[in-house]
């Protein structure tokens, strides 16, 4: 490991990050414990430890390290196959001082359908690094729902990658929920390669104490009549931080495409900090695009309105924050480990971190 | 029997003195109208009574049955029995009216198990679409729906004294009639005391004032019976603005 060069915050994609604090030599190679739950017949049908999917060309150190060291879980849904019940993959990091490289490949073949939930968990005393990569491949008319849930402990780092590629008329719904981790980063990239391909990216993140959540998104339109819709909403409290940077790229051939990007952030304490940087790169005219980004505290008027009804300040704040996240909570699919998310956000709001 | 006593109240906003010397006493069951031209300080009076941030009381006192209202945070002013119907009710995305009312009853240690039924009954009475109860508070509500919702909340929370800040702005005549009538009914049914702040007298057809006060330049310059409103309708505020 001594030969690798860690990126720095001078690189745009690492700007605002905590990469400067990372000392890879502190970590020895380790593993996550991976369990897979769901209907036994479905798991038998689709899960394997081998895959023919070739990783994309990467220029990123951590992606490369993952490609070299990956502990692979492959999901392959055959042409025309529909798996109705979600499959739950849980990666548990159980020792300190290690770096682990789980890799998940979701290969949804033509006109197939699947829902995958991928959870990352660790105890609060686990000072380790997890570098997960998920590759989503949606072939023509395939329908993939993927939910990533970060429930990592307060000392665990995550540097993650989501790479999703959609072919003709495919539909990819990609969700991220982040409540855990010390520094937890996800680079979530969607590439719409086939005409009429469709993607949704939705995230809820909430950092407290000294946590930092870091999201870098890309909506890359590389075919005509493609549509992408992104909604990321986050909150920071105490001295927590969050970063969102997002790029919509519409390539020259991607005419009649539509792309939407919304990132909204609530700063719940004076010491909390959030950054939001939206970007557009549009190479053709005949498209529909919009982006919106906000960072700010709870609206005083909303707080006053509720308090004027006799609602206690802390309850009013909780109502407003849960209301803020409501739009995201409403869009999350009804899968295990999501049902109690509203409650978990509520507890985190009242709790110490 | 409840009494709200406002004594020599002076209020500044952003360093500018808006109210100079306002004194009013409102008893249960009474309707007091405070009328005045634009900029007289009408909305400042309602905001200061409810403790809205940015409104600084520079002198004077407000008591509700002897309790120092100005020493209480906003939410406790409400649980003590004050209720503000806002001129421009705030939109709160993702928070349902039913949820807000449930939290409001919790703060009063009141049972909220009958809330759904109560809201339905009151919604029907005020002509408010019960479907809207499960939508975000005031979001995409029409002007009339907003004021019906405000009035519905008043009837659910049953305050002792209601402050109506320009109830008659931004809504159609039917909604105004329904809302004004509902408040008038409450003066009899729950002995509600009312401070109605308004520019115009059109809501007095349903909600009958017992006292009319003219507020100009931050002062009450005249107080009389309901006949004063009729006079204002004819002569306007011109005679009072240079007092």
Question: How would you describe this structure to a colleague?
Answer:
The complex is a heterodimer of chains A (353) and B (243). Chain A has 353 residues and is α/β, with parallel strands linked by helices. Chain A has one domain (12-297). Chain A has helices at 40-46, 61-69, 300-307, 313-331, 341-350, and strands at residues 28-29, 33-37, 47-48, 71-77, 87-93, 98-100, 102-108, 113-122, 129-130, 133-138, 143-151, 157-166, 171-178, 183-192, 198-207, 212-221, 227-236, 241-250, 258-267, 273-282, 288-296. The longest helix of chain A is centred in the last third of the chain and has 19 residues, at 313-331. Chain A is globular and about 60 Å long. Chain A starts with 27 loop residues before the first strand and ends with a helix. Chain B is of the alpha/beta class and 243 residues long. Chain B has one domain: Rossmann fold, CATH 3.40.50.300. Chain B is built from eight helices and twelve strands. In chain B, the strands form three sheets. Chain B has a six-stranded mixed beta sheet with strand order 6-9-10-3-11-12, with helices on both faces. In chain B, strands 2-1-4-5 form a four-stranded antiparallel beta sheet. The mean pLDDT of chain B is 94. Chain A binds chain B through residues 299-302, 304-313, 315-316, 319-320, 322-327, and chain B through 50, 52-53, 73-79, 83-84, 86, 89-95, 99-101, 103-104, 106-108, 136-137, 153, 157.
Write down the CATH class of chain B.
Alpha Beta
Largest interface: A-B, 24 and 32 residues
Q: And the CATH topology of chain B?
A: Rossmann fold
Q: Helix tally of chain A?
A: 5
Run of helices and strands of chain A: EEHEHEEEEEEEEEEEEEEEEEEHHH
Identify the overall geometry of chain B.
globular
Broad structural category of chain A: alpha/beta
Kindly, what is the distance between the CA atoms of the first and last residues of chain B, rounded to a whole number of angstroms? 35 Å
């Amino acid at each position: 490991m001594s030969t690798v060069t860690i990126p720095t915050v001078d690189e745009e994609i690492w700007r605002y990050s905590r990469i400067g604090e990372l000392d890879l030599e502190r970590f020895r190679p380790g593993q996550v414990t991976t369990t897979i739950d769901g209907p036994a017949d479905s798991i038998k049908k689709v899960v394997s430890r081998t895959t023919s999917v070739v990783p994309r060309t990467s220029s990123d150190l951590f992606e490369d390290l993952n490609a070299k060291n990956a502990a692979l879980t492959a999901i392959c849904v055959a042409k025309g196959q529909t798996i109705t019940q979600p499959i739950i993959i849980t990666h548990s990091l159980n020792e300190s001082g290690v770096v682990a490289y789980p890799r998940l490949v979701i290969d949804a073949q033509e006109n197939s359908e699947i829902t995958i939930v991928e959870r990352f968990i660790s105890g609060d005393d686990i000072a380790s690094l997890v570098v997960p990569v998920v590759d989503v491949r949606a072939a023509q008319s395939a329908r993939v729902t993927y939910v990533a849930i970060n429930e990592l402990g307060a000392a665990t780092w995550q540097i993650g990658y989501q790479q999703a590629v959609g072919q003709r008329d495919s539909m990819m719904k990609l969700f991220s929920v982040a409540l855990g981790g010390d520094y937890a980063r996800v680079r979530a990239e969607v590439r719409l390669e086939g005409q009429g391909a469709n993607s949704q990216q939705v995230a809820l993140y909430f950092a407290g104490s000294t946590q930092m959540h870091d999201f870098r998104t890309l909506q890359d339109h590389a075919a005509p009549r493609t549509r992408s819709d992104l909604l990321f909403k986050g909150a920071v409290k105490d001295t927590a931080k969050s970063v969102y940077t997002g790029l919509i790229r519409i390539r020259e051939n991607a005419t009649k495409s539509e792309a939407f990007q919304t990132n909204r952030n609530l700063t719940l304490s004076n010491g909390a900090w959030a950054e939001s940087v939206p970007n557009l790169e549009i190479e053709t005219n005949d498209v529909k695009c919009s982006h919106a980004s906000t960072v700010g505290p709870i609206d005083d008027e909303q707080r006053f309105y509720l308090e004027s009804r006799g609602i206690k300040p802390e309850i009013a704040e909780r109502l407003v924050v849960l209301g803020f996240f409501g739009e995201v909570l409403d869009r999350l699919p009804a899968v295990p480990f999501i049902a109690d998310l509203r409650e978990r956000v509520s507890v985190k709001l009242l709790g110490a971190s | 029997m409840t009494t709200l006593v406002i004594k020599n109240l002076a209020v500044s906003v952003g360093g500018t003195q808006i109210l100079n010397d306002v004194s009013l006493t409102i008893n249960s069951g009474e309707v007091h109208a405070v009328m005045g031209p634009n900029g007289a300080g009408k909305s400042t009076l309602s905001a200061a009574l409810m403790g809205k941030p940015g409104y600084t009381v520079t002198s004077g006192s407000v008591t509700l049955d002897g309790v120092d209202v100005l020493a209480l945070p906003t939410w406790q002013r409400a649980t003590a029995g004050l209720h503000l119907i806002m001129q421009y009710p705030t939109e709160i995305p993702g928070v349902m009216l039913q949820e807000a009312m449930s939290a409001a009853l919790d703060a009063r240690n009141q049972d909220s198990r009958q809330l759904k039924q109560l809201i339905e009954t009151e919604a029907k009475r005020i002509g408010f679409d019960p479907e809207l109860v499960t939508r975000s508070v005031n979001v995409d509500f029409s002007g009339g729906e907003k004021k019906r919702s405000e009035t519905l909340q008043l009837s659910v929370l049953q305050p002792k004294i209601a402050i109506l800040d320009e109830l008659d702005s931004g809504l159609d005549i039917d909604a105004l009639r329904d809302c004004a009538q509902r408040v008038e009914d409450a003066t009899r049914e729950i002995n509600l005391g009312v401070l109605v702040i308004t520019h115009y007298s059109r809501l007095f057809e349903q909600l009958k004032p017992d006292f009319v006060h003219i507020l100009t330049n931050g002062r009450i310059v005249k107080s009389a019976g309901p006949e004063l409103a009729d006079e204002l309708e004819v002569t306007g505020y011109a005679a009072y603005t240079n007092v």
